[in-house]
């Protein structure tokens, strides 16, 4: 029995029990009206058919019609596609998939630590803490954060196979390593950070590697990297990296974000669903400075393997720095899933070193583990409730970032679906005031029509019509004139809308109630 308790299988079962005890209720959660609906619910036609799988690699990760979306993550969408093909549209299946992948990722982290000869017992304790840490609780409860979990699995398995190849020279491990690196690339853009990190790892750990072998490995990694960029550039718009790299705001934002992350990792008092354009916080900066000093002491005093510290810090910075390469500076905690593991590696080694020198501190370590495990678990258990359904999700989003136009718009849509049109109109106007987007003007028109405020809707729609002869604007104008009993105008705009989208179902239903609009004659004239 004692031998079984120390096995990998027992630890895997422990993770299974802890994760389902903590996050199992998420299986009954809805999909959320943000990334979940765009990548799954509104994308069913594409992801539910085997024949469409190749198209997942030629389009953005949400919908092929949205050419402006910069996310290219075909492996992520492929997992949703496999689940949909096998089980149909089933929200429980998507949530269960997330939880099982979450467990697999944590177990792969353990295997990676064993490969680097970390203390088994201490590693298990810290991985359990990581599993229930509030900053990554959203990764278990929110289906679309699966990209972070998959990235962790592929990246760490690639490192394990790289180590096996370096130690044995067997080509099968080299092939697996390259395939896993490729899979990580097609899962999330930040996998690119590991291209140089592999070489840093080989150099720091002093594996017997000749210049010729370095060049060979570089070429082998370069081929899938080029393939990735070719596929990505064909599917999504390019990111203006030069703009971000030369903009001082990028680095200010990064410092603010990192300071916030460090504070929330060390003191996870309240975990936001999202933050937007965060300002400099004296508290966050002060905690970060003390944390950096502590890391410097650990490095200088060799409390942790210096190679581990260098590799971990490089990975953390490389993974998180691209998150500020956005025109809108959003802070989302699920991005910490893999970076937090690399930070945990340092914590494990420091703890191991201290306990070897001060064996009388073992009981104190156990007490601290129990306290932290209890505190983190309670926080995470409550935090996942923010992701129960879209209404609760957007209420929390707005509460945490009412200065972000997307949060205003998202909550407005929930009020609209609930037929609370006055609240929806108010929030759509807030969104437009924060960011004067065309879509928000259309949303305001939708709310005005729902409130029977047709004169206001007409005025705004005519303004939009002058700038852009868009199908939606033309269709809305036809509706407004129908409700105002100006039938000739309603028919004229309906005819124009029909020339743009003759198969639109909403338009066809609208046409049926228009006197003087003979669809058959109109078709004949066309």
Percent of residues in helical segments?
A: 55-70%
Largest sheet: 2 strands, antiparallel
| Uncertain stretches | none
Give me the Rg, rounded.
27 Å
How many angstroms does the end-to-end distance come to?
A: 81 Å
Q: What string, H for helix and E for strand, traces the elements in order? A: HHHHHHHHHHHHHHEHHEHHHHHHHHHHH
Q: What would you call the structural class?
A: mainly alpha
Oligomer: single chain
Q: What proportion strand? A: under 5%
Q: Let me know the average pLDDT.
A: 90
Number of domain units = 2
Number of strands: 2
Strand order of the largest sheet: 1-2
The outline comes out as elongated
In DSSP terms (H or I, runs of 4 or more residues), the helix count works out at 27
Describe the structure.
This protein has 526 residues and is mostly helical. It has 2 domains: 2-387, no CATH class; 403-525, Tetratricopeptide repeat domain (Serine Threonine Protein Phosphatase 5, Tetratricopeptide repeat, Alpha Horseshoe). The chain is 70% helix and 1% strand. The protein has a two-stranded antiparallel sheet. The longest helix has 25 residues, at 91-115. The relative contact order is 0.08.
Topology summary:
Elements: H1 2-5, H2 8-23, H3 35-39, H4 44-47, H5 74-87, H6 91-115, H7 120-131, H8 137-141, H9 146-168, H10 171-185, H11 194-204, H12 211-235, H13 241-245, H14 248-266, E1 275-276, H15 282-300, H16 306-320, E2 330-331, H17 337-357, H18 362-383, H19 390-400, H20 405-417, H21 421-434, H22 438-450, H23 454-467, H24 471-483, H25 487-500, H26 505-512, H27 519-525
Antiparallel strand pairs: 1-2
Helix pairs in contact: 2-6, 6-7, 6-9, 7-17, 7-18, 9-10, 10-12, 11-16, 14-15, 16-17, 19-20, 20-21, 21-22, 22-23, 22-24, 23-24, 24-25, 25-26
